[in-house]
Design goal:
The protein has 3 domains: about 55 residues, SH3 type barrels (Roll), CATH 2.30.30; about 80 residues, Arc Repressor Mutant, subunit A, CATH 1.10.10; about 35 residues, no CATH class. The protein has about 190 residues and is α+β, with helices and mostly antiparallel strands. Helices cover about 40% and strands about 20% of the residues. α2 crosses α3, α3 crosses α5 and α7 packs antiparallel against α8. The protein is elongated and about 75 Å long. It is built from 8 helices and 8 strands; from the N terminus they run βββββαααβααββααα. The mean pLDDT is about 90. The strands form 2 sheets. The protein has a 5-stranded antiparallel sheet, covered by helices on one side.
Length: about 190
């Protein structure tokens, strides 16, 4: 069952105004018909930056309705915020992720800095698939295949030979071969 789409108008100095999306146009730039909780109906442009959209019960809705909550969450756990936005969107690009968070009031530079620090963690998140700038959420854990597993399974002698004689080895290949060599070494104390 799909959750109801809600709209929240954020105006400087005013409390957030909540409503239900009754109708969306067929294109991304078309208007949106909203029934505000006070009974008024309004048709707004989909590009109106003073109106945010979220699903009932989502963290995004809480961020829209509670000023300052996104700042608290982002300062405490930017990776958690990115993960939640990706989960709620299903599929999102970095540009869309940044836009979504700036609409909630976060600073563009802070978002980009935090993303740069957390992007490696997003790439190995068990429910997020990253391809280029696109992030996709999967409810089922994503099985990741190690493209260098065959190198890690070499005997230490074979791996050492490839390290010594291999030309044009890329860093991940060298690391995999080094792992194969290390597997025969006693642990460091």
């Amino acid at each position: 069952m799909k959750q109801e789409e809600l709209a929240v108008r954020l105006a400087p100095g005013a409390l957030p105004r909540r409503g239900t999306v009754l109708q969306r146009g067929k294109t991304a730039s078309a208007s949106v018909l909203i029934l505000w909780d006070d009974g008024d109906q309004e048709r707004v442009k989909a590009t109106d930056r003073s109106v945010g959209y979220a699903r009932e019960g989502s963290r995004h809705l809480a961020w829209l309705l509670e000023p300052g909550l996104i700042d608290e969450d982002f300062n405490a756990d930017p990776l958690g915020v990115f993960t939640e936005v990706i989960k709620e969107a299903g599929k999102i690009t970095v540009t869309m992720l940044v836009r979504s968070l700036t609409q909630l009031g976060l600073d563009d530079r802070d978002i980009r800095d935090a993303y740069a620090k957390t992007k490696d963690a997003l790439k190995i998140h068990p429910h997020i698939e990253v391809k280029g700038a696109s992030h996709r959420w999967s409810d089922a854990p994503i099985v990741r295949v190690d493209p260098y597993d065959h190198l890690r399974k070499l005997s230490p002698h074979e791996a050492l030979d490839q390290l010594a004689t291999g030309k044009n080895l890329r860093a991940p290949q060298k690391a995999a071969l080094a792992d194969a060599v290390r597997s025969a070494l006693p642990p460091l104390d």
